[in-house]
Amino acid sequence: MAKKESFFINRVKSVGYAFKGAYLLLTTEASIQVQFSIGILVTIAGFYFNISTTEWIIQTLVIAIIMALEGVNTAIEEIADFIHPEQHPKIGLIKDLAAGAVFIFAVAAACVGCIIYLPKLLA
């Protein structure tokens, strides 16, 4: 019987897989690249406008959530294409629903950005 790896070794491997996934998303997926670029721009804006600690927390969470949702959307699309490579109405619906979830949060993220930055731009 093979010796079971330790909890620590398994966690290290899991983190390695997560880094690999994040790297693949950032280097191969245009939607993530766009969101990452927007995240960089609003981070620079945060330093420029000296936003509050609370605004930093909210902005950081919004950037992380939108990028995570984009990653989940990409995973759903990949699974759907793997399961049924040809065009199929149900697969199309599944992909549209996943993209819709990203869109809903993207609209909310834009609203958060406006709440944080419009008063500073108009002052």
UniProtKB/TrEMBL annotation:
Binding-site list for a divalent metal cation: 29, 77
Catalytic residues identified in the record: 70
Primary location: membrane
Residues annotated to bind substrate: 70
Cofactor remark: Mn(2+), Zn(2+), Cd(2+) and Co(2+) support activity to lesser extents.
Membrane topology: Multi-pass membrane protein
GO biological process, one term: phospholipid biosynthetic process
Residue ranges of the TM segments: 21-50, 56-76, 97-118
Keywords: ATP-binding, Cell membrane, Kinase, Lipid biosynthesis, Lipid metabolism, Magnesium, Membrane, Metal-binding, Nucleotide-binding, Phospholipid biosynthesis, Phospholipid metabolism, Transferase, Transmembrane, Transmembrane helix
Compartments where located: Cell membrane
GO molecular function terms noted in the UniProt entry: ATP binding; kinase activity; metal ion binding
GO CC, any one term: plasma membrane
Binding residue positions for ATP: 17, 29, 77, 86-88, 95-96
Cofactor(s) annotated in UniProt: Mg(2+)
Similarity annotation: Belongs to the bacterial diacylglycerol kinase family.
Name of the featured protein: Diacylglycerol kinase (ATP)
